[in-house]
Specification:
The protein is α+β, with helices and mostly antiparallel strands and 188 residues long. The chain has six helices and six strands; from the N terminus they run ββαααβααβββα.
């Protein structure tokens, strides 16, 4: 906990955005997660009301805590930040990382950008969706796998590119992806 002069530590937010952390070897690595602080109530909405950009911090905290942004929280967010519900919905829908429903335990993102399309990402996507029996952006009924489109993973020279649970792979063929999907589906 950070001690502020005059005993004002209670003014610090409950959640802070961790941009980096230390790994087991002590090296600094990107974390990109929202971590709770221990000095305020457990409410990521009110924790950021007085901050510039507080809505984004609150949405990131809610996404990290719940795995999605519950539509029932939109009115509370709008009231807390003194904006309209449409503005809150606009922010949520603008950023792809904010989701309106829980994702599967495993998230497969298949690049749909032109470079990857030129080397087979559309057929890889079709194969994946057919294998799982879902549509793009959907989650399998058992909640194990979500398949999403992404528009560039930065591996344009080694497409088609896929991100699986945050790990990027290039030159992915259906035969490469099938065992990963089979293992994800088999998890209980």
């Amino acid at each position: 906990m950070i001690d502020l002069p005059g005993g004002r530590s209670h003014l610090l937010p409950k959640y802070v955005l961790e941009l980096s952390t230390k790994n087991e070897k002590g090296a600094t690595v990107a974390a990109n997660t929202v971590q709770p602080c221990s000095n305020t109530e457990d409410d990521p909405i009110t924790a950021f009301v007085s901050e510039t950009g507080g809505l984004m911090h609150a949405l990131n905290a809610l996404q990290a805590r719940d795995g999605y942004i519950d539509a029932a929280l939109v009115p509370k967010l709008a009231k807390a930040f003194n904006i309209t519900k449409a503005e809150v919905k606009g922010v949520i829908s603008f950023y792809d990382d904010f989701t309106k429903a829980p994702k599967g335990k495993h998230v497969v993102r298949i690049c749909q950008a032109e470079a990857c399309q030129a080397v087979g990402s559309r057929s890889l996507t079709a194969h994946t969706l057919e294998k799982l029996g879902i549509g793009l952006g959907d989650t399998t009924p058992d909640g194990h796998v979500t398949v999403e489109a992404v528009y560039c993973l930065g591996l344009c020279a080694t497409g088609p590119a896929v991100m699986i649970d945050g790990h990027v792979k290039g030159r992915v063929a259906p035969a490469d992806l099938d065992p990963i999907l089979d293992a994800a589906e088999a998890e209980a």
